[in-house]
């Protein structure tokens, strides 16, 4: 530890109310210190190990994760005494003076790139700077690029966003932009991360969408248990309004997987007692919130929109790419984190060398099961491999303490059975029957033909994306793990996990 008279900056990264106590402890300790310590609240850089302290002085940043107020007060007091790195530092990263982004060093957050995530965990989450282009220019740019929507909950998921924008622009009525920040998939954190860490950038993307369709209102749908994100959206919304942008309001909705479906979200926002997906056509761009033309986009899509308009020179924003830009991928596990990969990078790039490799579920709650992690993270590549596109990898080991693909497929089919809205038969009845047939495998009965037909019917005839996606864990288990299913029916678990 060395002493320095250089002022220090402490960033307190948090996304929950417990983090506010840590921030206050840091501020009190800084106020009581002899040397100046600048305390700044920020969002997460991508990790869930919050609150996180990042103390910066003389081109170095000392990091400490999962702190409480007492540890924070001690950490900041030592800094105030001019010493660096403070006691309790877990990692110290050297970097240029005054970097624009969180110094990820060589840790797990260093996987991939930080373009959409640039500034997460480092910059003021409420700062807003909308690119100075008019709506037609923004629409033309996205049209020539072919930017696709991102994530469960986006009305243009995996499709070019501008098709919906043109429909909304040409439809009768006052258009509105809905930001679907419900965080509805428990396996993917990309939207929560962007709203909590870069709310201003998400709203800048929403403002560009509003310009393109002539909307003067943006509604941000948030779960009730996200008060810190709500504060940051409010702060960014006020800054946007001061700059002449659209009015931003927050609407609290139930954050279930079902209400994440774009039209079910609109039903929820309208106060409907029984939330169901709507029949289409017309889609929400023509007939949306209270019958208004409505764009429904996730924070992931809107942040990608903002970057595509602001930085057209970025190499990954290539109109010839099948899926221009980058994708956020949450690695689900003990060191849960969200990283950003170019769309031509393989899934395996998100993982550390010490993570499980037996098999993985890729693409969220209703992702696909696979042993193959060389697939690129672009939407066409993932879909072509039968995997999901909702930005997550949950990797498993087999053996004691690990998991078994039959168990994973069964659990996710059970979620489909429990949480579907019940509006259409293929999903409502299909998910019940699929779950029952998977349970019967443990009793010695495995009817592969019937299970395949069920998965195919759900995927092809369900009314909304819930049912189409819900078939995926089953379909991919039948595709790549049929021998495991047969072995279970014969009373044997090849992974050594199930008690048969
Ligand atoms: S697919 Fe499932 S969630 Fe969607 S409308 Fe049908 S029953 Fe409801």
UniProtKB/TrEMBL annotation:
GO molecular function: 4 iron, 4 sulfur cluster binding; metal ion binding
Domain NADH-ubiquinone oxidoreductase 51kDa subunit iron-sulphur binding per the UniProt entry, residue ranges: 406-451
SMART domains (UniProt xref): NADH_4Fe-4S
Top-rank taxon: Archaea
Gene3D superfamilies tied to this protein: NADH-ubiquinone oxidoreductase 51kDa subunit, NADH-ubiquinone oxidoreductase 51kDa subunit, iron-sulphur binding domain
Entry-linked InterPro entries: Nuo51_FMN-bd, Nuo51_FMN-bd_sf, Nuop51_4Fe4S-bd, Nuop51_4Fe4S-bd_sf
Entry keyword ATP-binding: no
Keyword terms of this UniProt record: 4Fe-4S, Iron, Iron-sulfur, Metal-binding
Region (Disordered): 79-105
PANTHER family named among the record's database cross-references: NADH-QUINONE OXIDOREDUCTASE SUBUNIT F (PTHR43578:SF3)
Family: Belongs to the complex I 51 kDa subunit family.
Name of this chain's protein: NADH-ubiquinone oxidoreductase-F iron-sulfur binding region domain-containing protein
């Amino acid at each position: 530890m060395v002493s320095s008279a250089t002022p220090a900056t402490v960033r307190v990264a948090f996304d929950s109310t417990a983090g506010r106590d840590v921030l206050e402890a840091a501020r009190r300790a800084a106020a009581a210190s002899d040397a100046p310590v600048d305390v700044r609240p920020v969002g997460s850089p991508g990790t869930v190990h919050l609150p996180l302290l990042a103390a910066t002085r003389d081109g170095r940043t000392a990091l400490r994760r999962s702190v409480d107020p007492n540890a924070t007060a001690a950490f900041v007091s030592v800094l105030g005494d001019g010493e660096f790195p403070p006691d309790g530092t877990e990692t110290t990263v050297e970097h240029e003076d005054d970097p624009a982004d969180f110094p990820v060093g060589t840790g797990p957050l260093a996987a991939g790139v930080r373009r959409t995530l640039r500034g997460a965990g480092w910059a003021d989450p409420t700062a807003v700077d909308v690119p100075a282009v008019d709506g037609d220019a923004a629409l033309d740019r996205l049209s020539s690029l072919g930017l696709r929507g991102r994530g469960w909950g986006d009305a243009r998921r995996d499709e070019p966003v501008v098709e919906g924008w043109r429909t909304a622009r040409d439809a009768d009525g006052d258009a509105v932009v809905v930001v679907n920040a419900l965080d509805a998939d428990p396996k993917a954190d990309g939207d929560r991360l962007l709203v909590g860490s870069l709310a201003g950038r998400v709203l800048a993307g929403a403002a560009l969408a509003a310009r393109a369709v002539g909307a003067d209102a943006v509604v941000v749908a948030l779960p009730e248990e996200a008060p810190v994100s709500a504060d940051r959206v409010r702060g960014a919304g006020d800054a946007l309004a001061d700059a002449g942008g659209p009015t931003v309001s927050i609407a609290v909705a139930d954050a279930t997987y079902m209400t994440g479906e774009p039209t079910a979200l609109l039903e929820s926002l309208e106060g409907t007692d029984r939330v169901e997906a709507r029949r289409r056509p017309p889609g929400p761009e023509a007939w949306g919130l209270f019958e208004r033309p409505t764009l429904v986009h996730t924070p992931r899509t809107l942040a990608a929109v903002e970057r595509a308009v602001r930085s057209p020179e970025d190499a990954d924003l290539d109109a010839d790419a099948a899926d221009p830009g980058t994708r956020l991928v949450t690695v689900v596990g003990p060191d849960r984190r969200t990283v950003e990969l170019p769309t031509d990078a393989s899934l395996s790039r998100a993982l550390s060398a010490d993570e499980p490799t037996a098999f993985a579920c890729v693409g969220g709650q209703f992702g696909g099961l696979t042993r193959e992690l060389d697939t690129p993270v672009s939407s066409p590549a993932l879909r072509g491999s039968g995997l999901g596109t909702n930005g997550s990898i949950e990797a498993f080991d087999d053996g004691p303490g690990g998991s078994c693909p039959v168990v994973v497929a069964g659990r996710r089919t059970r979620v489909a059975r429990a949480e579907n809205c019940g509006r259409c038969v293929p999903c409502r009845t299909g998910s019940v029957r699929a779950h029952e047939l998977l349970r019967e495998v443990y009793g010695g009965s495995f009817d592969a033909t019937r299970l395949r037909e069920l998965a195919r019917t759900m995927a092809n005839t369900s009314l909304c994306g819930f049912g189409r996606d819900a078939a995926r864990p089953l379909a991919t288990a039948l595709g790549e793990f049929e021998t495991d299913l047969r072995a279970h029916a014969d009373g044997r678990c090849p992974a050594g996990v199930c008690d048969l």
